[in-house]
Write a structure and sequence with these properties.
Layout (H helix, E strand, L loop, with lengths): L6 E10 L2 E5 L5 E5 L12 E8 L5 E4 L10 E10 L2 E5 L6 E4 L12 E8 L6 E4 L18 E9 L3 E6 L3 E6 L12 E9 L5 E4 L5 H17 L3 E2 L7 H8 L3 H13 L3 E3 L4 E3 L13 H12 L18
Parallel strand pairs: 13-15
Antiparallel strand pairs: 1-2, 1-4, 2-3, 4-5, 6-7, 6-9, 7-8, 9-10, 11-12, 11-14, 12-13, 14-15, 16-18, 17-18
Helix pairs in contact: 1-3
Length: 318
């Protein structure tokens, strides 16, 4: 069955002067206009298309990919506001409507807003809403501390950034733990830092302990490789420079470099840190001659009495 608001693979059932008709199953025949038809398209071909209602409320197919699909959260720019609501640029010829009753705050032309794309239950038309709370779970989140999650960055607050966790729950990233630029609508991976007694979730963008080191190590090696195998930034550099360059704290940087040095992946020089492309395995210690001889003597010693000549007892002269 073809789904409105989704990417579908549909079969061409006939060609006309103004486009191709696709088999939409329960939705009937759906027009794919000429301007969207793949080159050489013919009957019985299968085409990947997005289905929606055009400006004339006709069900239409397009090979263009919108910036967001049905049920997705996405940040979109307002192009126009009129008596119907705000119209967002979502990459198609028809803009996406946010009715006034679906606006959390009154929308302004030129600004970006995080919205949820939904389908009107009465008309099947696609629209968007910035009232995100009603689409997220109000029950306490069922996460484990340290669990890796998918985040969508939302509004800036006095404490940091709100973020949507796995498309289900709200969480919070604190300003003093953010070492990279964030913007509304950005998709990024993070970790569960804490779940408060009221069920609210604190987030972090980096794992704690050795996990944090393991996350940064590949990025630092890539940096070295992109810079002729050398970094002038080292453990003597300022925390601000390290955060600005790598997006991690100085503590994480030093731990990562120390771990790479321990495994022979880098050498630490006076001028900086150098990448070792082919680390040589450490040689196993060989036993010295004296140690080997001592070990041989020790192992050859029998636990039983010697069978050699024994002294006979002295006779007593009476």
């Amino acid at each position: 069955m073809a789904d409105i608001g989704k990417i579908n693979t549909l079969k061409v059932i006939k060609l006309t002067d103004f486009g191709a008709y696709l088999d939409g199953n329960d939705l009937g025949e759906i027009l794919l206009p000429n301007r969207y038809m793949p080159e050489g398209c013919k009957e019985a071909d299968e085409v990947d298309v997005f289905i929606y209602f055009d400006s004339n409320d006709r069900l239409i197919a397009t090979t263009e990919t919108p910036k967001g699909l049905l049920d997705e959260f996405v940040s979109l720019k307002v192009l126009q506001v009129n008596q119907m609501g705000a119209f967002l640029d979502w990459g198609l010829s028809k803009d996406l409507l946010v009715p006034y009753n679906q606006q959390h705050h009154k929308m302004v032309v030129g600004k970006y807003y995080l919205v949820k794309i939904y389908k009107d239950m009465h008309t099947d038309r696609l629209a968007a809403s910035s009232k995100l709370d009603k689409y997220l779970d109000i029950w306490p989140a069922n996460f484990e501390i340290g669990e890796r999650v998918d985040l969508i960055i939302s509004d800036k607050t006095d404490l940091g950034f709100k973020a949507i966790i796995n498309n289900r729950n709200w969480g919070l990233l604190y300003d003093n733990e953010i070492f990279q630029p964030l913007r509304v609508g950005k998709n990024i991976q993070g970790y569960i830092k804490n779940i408060r007694p009221d069920g609210r979730v604190d987030l972090t963008l980096t794992r704690s302990g050795i996990g944090k080191v393991n996350d940064f190590a590949p990025a630092f090696i890539a940096y070295l490789q992109d810079n002729d195998g050398f970094s002038a930034i080292n453990d003597k550099s300022s925390p601000e420079l390290i955060q600005q360059t790598f997006g991690v704290s100085k503590k994480t940087f030093k731990s990562t470099v120390g771990n790479l040095f321990k495994h022979g992946r880098v050498s630490i020089e006076a001028e900086g840190i150098r990448f070792i492309s082919n680390p040589q395995p450490k040689a196993k210690p060989t036993a010295t001659k004296s140690t080997s001889t001592a070990a041989t003597k020790k192992t050859s010693k029998s636990p039983y009495p010697s069978k050699g000549k024994q002294s006979s007892p002295k006779r007593s002269n009476k």
